[in-house]
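REQUEST ID: PR-0412
SUBMITTED BY: lab tech R.K.
PRIORITY: routine
TASK: structure prediction, single protein chain
INPUT:
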Amino acid sequence: MNKLPKFKDFNPPTEYFDQLPDQIMEGINPKKNLTWLRYAASIAVLLVAGIWLVYQPAEEMPILTLEQEVNLYIDSQYWTAEDVLSMADNPEEILDQIINEEYPEGMELWEEDDQTWF
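STATUS: complete
OUTPUT:
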C-alpha cells in the first residue's frame, strides 16, 4: 500500500455531471429505420432471379419424326388411339398395319377353342 501514490481530493470540473447526460445522448446515434432497405433488397433478389429464369437458354429439343411425336402424345394420354384414328385419312390402313405388326402372317389370330364359340 505504501507504493501507491497519494492523490489529492479529486474534484470533477464544474457542471460536469450536469452536462454528462446531454453529452452521452449526443454520442448515441438513433437507430435508423431500415425496413425499406430490407424490402428493396428482397425485391432486387426476386427481380434478378426472375430475369435469370426467363433468360435461361432453352435446352435444344431433339427433332422427332411424326411417328415419334404421335407416340409421345399417345403415351402422355393427351391423345387416345381413337383421336389418332379420327385424324387419319385412311384409318382402316392404319389398323391393318397395326394388326400385321402385332400378329405377323402365319400366326393364328384365334385359337381353335375361340373359333367354335359361335
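NOTES: The mean pLDDT is 79.
REVIEWED BY: pending
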